[in-house]
């Protein structure tokens, strides 16, 4: 904890002003950046002159960096010894950027808003006190979710690196975080895309005059089948036609006895899964150029659909009862610990830190993009969408309760059962049901694809940045990642695929993501230093994160994530799905999946410790010292309109012309 106090109380550099008269031609006045003389181990860049928007050395030589390393006051030329670092810097300069700022915003909004906003948040909200749940939910947003979201955006934008190579610029021994992220993202991508395949199958089935899940005269229906319009006359033995359609036609679960007997492949779902991965490949194979265009459809379409469904839902009979049930506050629930744990887990998994997507997507930003505003805006949109989605869902649940002459609680559910059974059943009772079905399942597909783009982009960016072989082979790395996820996800389209999906959903991400985020905040704020991280943000945005953000990053987030990590083990329940108890070997496989991503972090630390020469102290210093220093990119030609603008572009804001002293040296004007 001593490291925390040192970084939090770090004395900011003193800004002193050496007033000098402004040169006559201020636009063309050179800005000379002399060598920094601080006695510390750092990478220094020799003086350069920026003149007429063109960067040259003070001696007039070509604009190439001469890297020197200082150690204890002794300076040695390491320009020829830093080939790898120079290659990294050159590659960084050639890195793609988003065509427009809105492309990036749509990408991160689309990633953050996923199927969980529709089928998880509304259920969690009503279960934990309705409107009262918004209190812990918003508190967890402010103190946990938003700081982590902001931190990852800032890290990716400043270092302009993928989830693996970025740690060489922060704390090399934590490169295992990046490999763990790759495992988590591919595991989730494998089964998550199967849910999108379900929605695609329902979409195809919606182009009919009569919805098959609304009738009971099909080959898969039982004698106890009851259609949605006859539910008021149901008995204790009755089974909804939508339930039988989902279980016995879409999934065909009756052909599987459990996780140890998955049965054959459901070929219709396999084709849908192939189509989903084909769409993902075509939207991601050119990086930001293709993804930036795709998100204009996949990120905006759900909002349009959600608004239309909101208006239609609120006009249904009984809708008001559902909305009241959803929002009616029960403040007594706030005294229960599980409510606060659910709030923290919901905001954490909703915003999506730990997947590497935020780091990867923001790494294609321009250096001075205001990622702080991006984080605030995206978080507000995410939480607002969750709330509105709850109104949409519960207005329909109120309508279904009205049709069945029962209370809302008896029809309330979450997960796939909500969207593929209850909501589908409600749609089938509406006039023009085919139109509403197409609208709804298109929304689900768009929500799922956006999140898939972000999750797999993290893996593709990580591989391309870390391994030279993939750097100029974007198409190959995209195909490899998509094929890898497709092969892992094949068990999900078997007759017993739901058992596989539930196993993966329980073990692939929840515990691993919490541990990964915990290691991230420790590496960035305790070892790299929260003060140094704040300096990096200041160099990008021109202002320094205040004490609130630094305290959240260095104290509140680590403590909160640690508690969530512990409670994840305490609250673990033996795997069980619809009365089926998973065998011991399946539980062991689940924990093995969890350990694969978690173990990457300590394994890389151990590997680096034993492969690094020197004493223990020397090894620790090399393991925690950045191998590559990230510096602000040079100002491009045409950006220098005045000496004052040069200062602004480099994160230095001056009210008068003079000599500005900061941690990077002195800028004489």
Helical percent range? 55-70%
Q: Please describe the biggest sheet, giving its number of strands, its sense, and whether it closes into a barrel.
A: 3 strands, antiparallel
Strand order of the largest sheet: 1-3-4
Rg computed from alpha carbons, rounded to a whole number of angstroms:
28 Å
Tally of DSSP β-strands: 12
- Count the DSSP helices: 25
Query: Terminal Cα separation, in Å?
Result: 42 Å
- Low-confidence blocks of residues: 1-82, 637-669
**Which structural class fits the helix and strand makeup?**
mainly alpha
Percent range for β-strand residues: 5-15%
Shape designation: globular
Mean pLDDT: 81
Mind explaining what this structure looks like?
The chain has 669 residues and is mostly helical. It has 25 helices and twelve strands. The chain has helices spanning 2-8, 83-93, 101-112, 115-119, 121-127, 134-159, 176-205, 241-251, 267-284, 288-298, 301-314, 319-327, 337-351, 357-362, 371-404, 416-428, 433-466, 468-471, 474-489, 497-507, 510-541, 547-570, 584-611, 616-624, 643-649, and strands at 31-32, 43-45, 48-51, 54-57, 67-71, 74-77, 225-226, 239-240, 576-577, 580-581, 659-662, 665-668. The strands form five sheets. The chain has a three-stranded antiparallel sheet with strand order 1-3-4, with no helix packed on it. It has a three-stranded antiparallel sheet with strand order 2-5-6, with no helix packed on it. A hairpin with a 2-residue loop joins strand 3 and strand 4. Helix 9 (267-284) packs across helix 17 (433-466). The longest helix is centred in the middle third of the chain and has 34 residues, at 371-404. The chain is globular and about 80 Å long. The two termini are 42 Å apart. The model is unreliable at 1-82 and 637-669 (pLDDT under 50).
């Amino acid at each position: 904890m001593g490291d925390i106090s040192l970084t939090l109380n770090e004395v900011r550099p003193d800004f002193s002003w050496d007033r000098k008269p402004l040169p006559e031609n201020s636009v063309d006045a050179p800005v000379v950046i002399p060598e920094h003389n601080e006695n510390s181990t750092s990478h220094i860049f020799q003086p350069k002159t920026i003149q007429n928007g063109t960067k040259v050395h003070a001696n007039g030589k070509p604009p190439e960096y001469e890297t020197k390393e200082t150690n204890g006051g002794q300076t040695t030329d390491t320009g020829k010894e830093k080939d790898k670092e120079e290659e990294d810097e050159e590659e960084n300069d050639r890195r793609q950027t988003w065509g427009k700022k809105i492309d990036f915003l749509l990408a991160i909004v689309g990633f953050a808003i996923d199927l969980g906003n529709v089928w998880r948040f509304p259920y969690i909200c009503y279960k934990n006190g309705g409107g009262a749940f918004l209190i812990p939910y918003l508190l967890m947003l402010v103190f946990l979710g938003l700081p982590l979201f902001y931190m990852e955006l800032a890290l990716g934008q400043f270092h302009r690196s993928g989830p693996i190579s970025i740690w060489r610029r922060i704390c090399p021994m934590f490169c295992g975080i990046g490999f763990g992220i790759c495992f988590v993202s591919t595991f989730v991508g494998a089964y998550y895309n199967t849910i999108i395949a379900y929605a695609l199958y329902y979409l195809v089935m919606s182009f009919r005059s009569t919805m098959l899940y609304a009738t009971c005269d099909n080959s898969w229906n039982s004698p106890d089948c009851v259609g949605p319009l006859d539910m008021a006359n149901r008995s204790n033995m009755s089974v909804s036609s939508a339930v039988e359609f989902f279980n016995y036609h879409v999934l065909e679960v009756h052909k599987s006895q459990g996780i140890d007997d998955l049965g054959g492949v459901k070929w219709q779902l396999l084709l849908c899964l192939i189509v989903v991965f084909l769409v993902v490949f075509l939207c991601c194979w050119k990086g930001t150029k293709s993804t930036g265009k795709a998100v204009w459809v996949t990120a905006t379409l759900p909002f349009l659909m959600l608004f239309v469904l909101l208006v239609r839902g609120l006009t249904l009979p009984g809708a008001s009862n559902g909305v009241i049930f959803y929002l009616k506050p029960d403040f007594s629930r706030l005294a229960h610990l599980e409510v606060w744990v659910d709030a923290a887990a919901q905001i954490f998994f909703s915003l999506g830190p730990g997947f590497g997507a935020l780091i990867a997507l923001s790494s294609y930003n321009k250096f001075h993009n205001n990622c702080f505003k991006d984080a605030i805006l995206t978080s507000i949109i995410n939480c607002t969408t969750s709330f509105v989605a709850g109104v949409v869902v519960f207005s329909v649940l109120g309508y279904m309760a009205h049709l069945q002459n029962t209370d809302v609680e008896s029809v309330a559910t979450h997960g796939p059962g909500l969207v593929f059974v209850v909501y589908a059943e409600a749609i089938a009772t509406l006039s023009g049901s085919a139109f509403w079905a197409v609208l709804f399942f298109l929304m689900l597909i768009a929500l799922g694809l956006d999140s898939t783009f972000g999750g797999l982009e993290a893996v593709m960016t990580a591989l391309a940045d870390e391994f030279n072989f993939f750097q100029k082979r974007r198409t190959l790395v995209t195909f490899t990642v998509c094929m890898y996820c497709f092969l892992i996800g094949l068990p999900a389209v078997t007759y017993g695929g739901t058992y596989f999906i539930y196993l993966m959903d329980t073990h692939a991400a929840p515990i691993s993501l919490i541990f990964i985020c915990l290691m991230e905040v420790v590496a960035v704020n305790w070892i790299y230093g929260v003060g140094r991280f704040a300096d990096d943000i200041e160099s990008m945005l021109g202002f320094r994160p205040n004490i609130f953000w630094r305290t959240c990053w260095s104290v509140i987030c680590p403590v909160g994530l640690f508690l969530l990590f512990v409670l994840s083990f305490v609250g673990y329940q033996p795997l069980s799905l619809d009365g089926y108890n998973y065998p011991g070997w399946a539980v062991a496989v689940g924990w093995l999946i969890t350990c694969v991503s978690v173990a990457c972090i300590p394994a890389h630390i151990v590997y680096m410790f034993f492969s690094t020469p020197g004493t223990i102290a020397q090894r620790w210093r090399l393991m925690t010292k950045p191998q590559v220093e990230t510096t602000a990119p040079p100002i491009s030609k045409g950006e220098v309109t005045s000496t004052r603008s040069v200062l602004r572009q480099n994160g230095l804001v001056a009210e008068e012309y003079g000599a500005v002293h900061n941690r990077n040296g002195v800028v004489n004007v």
